[in-house]
Design goal:
single chain; about 325 residues; alpha/beta; Spore Coat Polysaccharide Biosynthesis Protein SpsA, Chain A; 2 domains; globular
Length: about 325
Amino acid sequence: MNAVSAVIPTYERWDLLERLMESLGRQTRPFDRIIVVDNGSTDGSAQSARERGAQVLELGRNAGFAAAVNRGIEAADTEYVAVLNNDVELEPEWLERALEELVREGGWFAVGKLLRHGARDVIDGTFDAVSRSGCAWRCGEGRSDGPVWNEPREIAAAPLTAALFRRELFDRVGLLDERFESYLEDVDFGIRCAAAGLKGRYVPEAVAWHRGSATFGAWGREKVRRIARNQVWIAAKHFPPRWWRLAWPALVGQLLWGGVALRHGAGLAYCRGKLEGLWGWRRMRRTMEPVSQGLFENGERLIRDLQRATGFDWYWKCYFALT
């Protein structure tokens, strides 16, 4: 009853994987299955996971985060599935708290509070919200922990850093879109869930610690390229048929994000990503799953309210001033 599998995509960094596995072993409500999906690691990650009792799926190549998660979900035969990055560590009550909330409230997924590793009072993330620009905010990122982030609430989108899902959700909405590879694939999935009216829960008592950007670095060129491309593809896939109504906020939001990338020395990677995104626009548009403009407006309203309550970032302050 209420069996849970953990799906862990991993690539290299066996040291991070071992820390995560150790935290899984300390859970007050143990996982029933642990499935590690190895994206072609050469550092012994697969063997390390096996030695700790995990089932290991070896893909033999780096197929991308989304593909690895999908193979793990396909292999899971439990009622619930937790998707966990290899660079997180769970507090002992993480699964117990998240599962308890889902069973009690009847949501389709649950996320907890992610704190930044090495900074015990800094939020790394909570839940996602996407604006009319196609750009998303991982709500709370970089903020000091406080009352705003300690209230349970209904949410529309779950970051796949550490999240618990009803397995049936993937049968209803589909698996992750592997064209995104990594970054914003969870935003795409969240939009699809919200469009289907399938909501989740934010459970602040379910705490995890995140090292963050362990593969590509916080502003690594490959990460920036993929995010820049996938921002365009979010718009191509989900903007309504009269998409030009959102053209101005999309232009403002995505150009402003480029300014942030440039400030971090990743301007060229940003430009490459945008060119790739535009090159793939028609292909993504042919398989579009458009949602109402209201869905993006609701996400933007949530971002504005949370920014107002906790202090505006430079990016969002400029975005709201211009749109």
